[in-house]
Amino acid sequence: MAQDYDADVIVVGSGAVGSNAAYELAKQGKSVIILEAGPSVPRWKILMNFRNSGRHYDRNDAYPNNPWAPTSYQPGYIQNTGSFDMMPGMLKLVGGTTWHWGGATWRYIPNDFKLKSLYGKGRDWPLEYDDIEPYYTRAEYELGIAGSDTDDQSGTHAGQAYPPRSKPYPITAEAYAVNGQKLNDTLVPQGYSMCIEPTVRIHKPWDGRPACQGNNNCDQVCPIGTLYNGSIHADKAVRAGAQLIPEAVVHKIETGEGNKIIAVRYLTPEGAEHRLTAKYFVLAAHSFETAKLMMMNDIGNSSDMVGRNMMDHIGISMGFLCEDTQWAGRGPVQQATIMNWRDGAFRSEHSANKTSMANNNPQIDLAKSAIDDGLMGAELDERILDQSRRYMYLYSFFEQLPDPKNRLEPNPEWKDSLGLPGMKIHFDVDDYVKAGAVKCREMYRDIAQKMNPKVEGGEILYINDWENHDHLMGTMIMGADASDSVVNHEGRSFDHENLFIASVGVIPAAGVVNPTLTAVALAIRSADIIAKEV
Amino acid sequence: MDTSPPDHRGAMDRPTRRLFLMGTAAMLASGALISRPLPAIAQTADSMAIAELVTGKTIDPALAKRAVDAITVTQPDYPQALSRLASFATEQGITDVETLKTADGFDGELKNTAKTLISALYLGYAGTPVAHTSDDGVQFVTYTQALTYRLTEPYTPIPSYSRQGTGYWAHLPEAG
Ligand SMILES: Cc1cc2nc3c(=O)[nH]c(=O)nc-3n(C[C@H](O)[C@H](O)[C@H](O)COP(=O)(O)OP(=O)(O)OC[C@H]3O[C@@H](n4cnc5c(N)ncnc54)[C@H](O)[C@@H]3O)c2cc1C
Ligand code: SF4
């Protein structure tokens, strides 16, 4: 007798990555259920929360932080034991963490897939750039990305569009902001390699999203829905027939014959438990939550690698004053990018970096430092205006290598309102990154001088060390070998043939570019594979 | 290029009278001559007077009150500290921030009291931010009325309130 299932495929998590997998499957005629821990919240409520809060330095603040679905900043939820405080932004609502993000949607370059064989460091991917290229293109058209078809994004292919692409970007690149243009015009003639960031912040209407009005609020909440987030594909999946169940916290995963996954169980906010069966399962509940869920259920972990090899683009940053007026904070929050250290033989010695100009409105922070310095009255206003005119902020990502010691585990000593555990994390910044940061600081000093040539050494306000960048890779690491990896190149669990992981957490070599586009591309690829099998 | 702050001074006669009221009330209160609480309306006016003194700007009375109320949530003895600052200014006959900041004796607690109020009015919040926690007790004062944004608004939109249209960022603001 044929077995009945609640769905062909159950997707856990409605973020950008899970929702894209769900949409592809629904579009291909599969019955899909999406289970999402958080609620569905309309944009206007989030915007009002933002405008009525004094806590803009906390990017989670405008979003629901429920006792059954806490965000990463709920006190106690994430406990760190290592030397670095791994505290990424992480949201729980329909659409997931991309409700607040920079929207940077880069591709990796071909050499990023071969770090071990080319440079003797970290790991190779179990696939190559050419394998993923068509899926990058599909992902770029799903997310609606504005980018340059002529830029060299590698720093090593001057005068050439690189990496190679089979189709142009769906939307042309937006105009440089005044400060990005100035940086470009100053540095490029002096040997720097620069390009414009590909982005889901679109300057022309696309797929129902309006053109960006330069609200400069992407990493809090876009007030007008220009900036892509995962809720767009959660909605599309529903329109293509998927069932979306919000406020459904998955806590149990059941295995059956042949070690296949047969069911998941979820809890409602009140603690009522429901069980759902399917032929295939996709875990897309964020890099940390997915690893936690797998470990809570001892799923897919015969390699003992779930939760390990945690990587982020740990970074440093510099605030400084330029000679000329720029007025940071007008328009896009990030854009101009320096790629001199993205790739090269040096990667056998130290980490690469990507360095970008962030254009977030700096004025409250500048005013705070002036007030802390004791300025009042006319002096205070003059300092705020002078620094706001000339301020520039650069930040850099480094390529942390996968190390099993950098890991997360469920923490039963902290429990949410449903009795589910928090997380314990151990993370140390590695020497490869530290050596890369030495080179980066030299570059910072050079740039500060070039942007302010009349002042000896430029006017550097600060250089910050070791910052979180919310790009959480490695926790369900992809590889060729079941003994040291959690999923294969398809995103399929080595232990359970009907279980796929769709997450930034599968990425085995971090490179230096924001990783979400790559995870979406891999998720679309996984969806194609699943669709053929169910 | 004109980088002078937009005109926000003026009405500088007002702080004197209100500060006098507040200073008197504070002295009366500290001298335990009266035991009943000050009427709320007097407190609002006093908040405004001292906010105008420490910033040198005209301050909406509701904003001044919100700032003092928010600070008081994070620092319950703040009203008393503010009264001491008001008394100091009244006793010294100080009516503007430029005189206040160089006045003999304006240091330590008095200066911190002023900085706390300046901070709430310029930054739009009271309290001390703590990174990576949802629970640091920081209190909302204002967003669009933050004095910092009132200074920079001719040049840079307040985040989430852009009215300048796609692509405006490719040019410097007309204001300079
Ligand atoms: C401030 C900020 C800026 C960023 N900028 C960029 C950028 O410019 N470019 C870039 O590439 N990346 C950026 N990122 C990272 C990016 O947001 C993440 O990589 C991306 O959100 C990952 O998508 P996801 O679908 O895997 O996870 P999420 O978006 O976190 O979605 C996971 C979903 O699963 C749900 N879930 C969790 N646990 C359960 C459970 N047990 N049961 C059911 N549902 C569950 C969650 O509620 C959530 O909705 C940024 C992040 C932050 C915080
Ligand atoms: S700059 Fe503003 S309008 Fe444009 S995408 Fe970001 S938040 Fe939206």
UniProtKB/TrEMBL annotation, chain A:
The keyword Oxidoreductase applies. The lineage of its organism: Bacteria, Pseudomonadati, Pseudomonadota, Alphaproteobacteria, Rhodobacterales. Keywords: FAD, Flavoprotein, Oxidoreductase. Its cofactor is FAD. The keyword Flavoprotein applies. GO terms for molecular function: flavin adenine dinucleotide binding; oxidoreductase activity, acting on CH-OH group of donors. It holds the Pfam family GMC_oxred_C. This is GMC family oxidoreductase.
From TrEMBL, chain B:
PROSITE patterns: TAT. InterPro entries: FAD-SLDH_ssu (IPR024651), TAT_signal (IPR006311). This is D-sorbitol dehydrogenase-like protein. It comes from Donghicola mangrovi. The lineage of its organism: Bacteria, Pseudomonadati, Pseudomonadota, Alphaproteobacteria, Rhodobacterales.
